[in-house]
Amino acid sequence: MEGAQTLDSRNLETIIFYEHHGRQLRLQNQNSALNDSLSYILTGAPALPAQISPPMRAMQEVTEYVRNKLETLELKEILILNKRLINQAKFIWVDLATEVVNRYLAFDAINYRGLPLSEFDKIKNFCILVDQTRELKTNPEDEWYKAISQLEAFDVSSRKNEAAFITELYSSFHGELVISNLVHSKFVKKYHKLLISSNPGLESDLKTFIGLWGVYAKSFGFISTTKDRSMNYGTLCSSEAGTWLDRLANMDLQTITRSILTASHLREGQNGFEKIVRACEILTFRVYATMKFRVNKNAIKINRLARDVLRVGNDHQYIVDQICIWLEELAPIKKFLLRIADGEAKYNYDPRVTGWNHCYYFLYEYEIDCSPVGVKPFPWATQKMTKVNTQEHILPQGNRDGDWWEGHWPDEAEAESFKHRLGNLVLTSGNLILSRKPFDQKLSDTSTKYYYNHSKATNTEKLITNFTNGTDWLKDNILAREVAMIKFAAERWSMPCCFDNGVVNLPEVYKDNCYGGNEEDADPEIHEDIENMLDD
To answer: What is each CA distance from 224 to 227, 261, 263, 474, in whole angstroms?
Structure first.
């Protein structure tokens, strides 16, 4: 009768269970949570733990796959599969102790040649081997489980993120630079001596390293996650530090200084961490976003600074001072501001020009700076096309219209050279409505639903009126607005250190055009301030 126990079902059961003080699973795991998960899958008890780790999820996925596969088979096919399992499932008992073979060394060797374990898995297995050999009592498997559970909690438990975690921790702990697929071999090379003889210094380092897995994973997960990180602002970091973390994420360059941020989050208090995140955002924007250095530029120094935080305990002031030195070396304030003022096209979505990848980021930060306190900020665009559609060219891109703009800018080459400049770009919510209207209608047209002076316009659109007489939008208007944006950049991305003091002289084009070519007519609030704003 279907459902009744048969000889085949009893034989199949003996593959899974054995009798010893009751029915026991043949496959067991020393990690109680993993063992409970396997038992639940095979027997229905005990209940699954509340926190599901990646190994548990993997077992569940296999179970679901097998269940779905079996549901597609006829009973005859299931019985054939049952026979195959009974005949082919064999357990081979190998007594490694009798053969004087270390079981962890054997396991490590097998996985070198067989199953594709992650770099973290292989490091964990090697640590178990060393721990057993030297009797260090570091509990590598427990610490490994804590780490992957923390990564899972912050939704960064993929193999890629796991590899990034252990690689970054290794690099930060040892002040080195190593690529992710070589971190295990690098680790073995550094600590293999402990398999041969005792070395107190190496043993101490290994103990400390293993002890960091769980706590470092928590900070790494928090810094790396994109899953509702803001819900932890005010607890895992201050709200202000969270704002700076969001800015790094908006730049999409957060991995550059992540080792410093993770180590600092682990070691520093909230006030110190807040200062460090701000310094990292400034470093990232000036050096990598604006001066366009490669993302691995300075990587070794960054890892060594992370080591100084993680192991030496240097505080936030030490970190900020070091970042000031790097800024002076790679992106001094004068070069940074002159790069913004170089006259090159900044809009980066015209395939015919090489623009600035972080132009939208700059315009967004300028919008936030110009927004009144307490006003809900303009929403950050996460999609490329939204970023394209919210960047308005005051002088339109298609200005050869045979109409108002072409008459206003008769020199096509001049219009072409100014349309993508920073001073001509503004964030908007009404690009389609504004389009190629004459400037005075863009500024104010009460017959339409959107214009620069409209109550729903962005705050930087409302400020355009400060740079025009209400009728003209020519090159000196663009340059005057650009000066204000450069002043904003000087204040926004300067550091509180002596390296950022000094005078910045802008190119002659600003004097020649902003002020009618007569320096005596220069508006002191623009010209004098820009040259002396860093004098203090």
So the answer is: 9, 10, 13, 45
DSSP string, 163-224: HHHHHHHHHHHHT----GGGHHHHHHHHHGGGGTS--HHHHHHHHHHHHHHHHHHHHHHHHH
CB-based contacts of 11: which residues, under 8 Å, 6+ apart? 86
| pLDDT tens digits along 267-313 | 999 999 999 999 999 999 999 999 999 999 999 999 999 999 999 99
**Within this chain, do residues 11 and 26 fall inside the same structural domain, yes or no?**
yes
39 in helix, strand or coil? Answer: helix
> Rounded CA gap, 188 and 480, in Å?
60
Same domain, yes or no: 153 and 253: no
Note whether residue 94 is domain-resident.
no
pLDDT in tens, 392-434: 999 999 998 889 999 999 999 999 999 999 999 999 999 999 9
Query: Hey, which residues does 237 pair with through a beta bridge?
Result: 233
Mark which of 196, 224, 252 sits at the end of a domain. 224
User: Do 421 and 350 form a contact (C-beta atoms < 8 A)?
Assistant: no
Region of 517 please: left (phi>0), alpha (psi -120 to 50) or beta: left
Would strands 23-25 and 425-427 be described as parallel, antiparallel, or unpaired?
unpaired
**Residue 8: left if φ>0, alpha if ψ -120 to 50, beta else—which one?**
alpha
Q: Count CA atoms within 13 Å of residue 305 on its CB side.
A: 27
What whole-number distance in Å separates Cα of residue 314 and Cα of residue 306? 9
For the chain, how big is the Rg over CA atoms in Å? 31
Rounded to whole angstroms, how far apart are CA atoms 53 and 76?
37
Could you give the number of structural domains in the chain? 4
What's the CA gap between 102 and 125, in Å, rounded? 12
Instruction: Give pTM, 2 decimals.
Output: 0.82
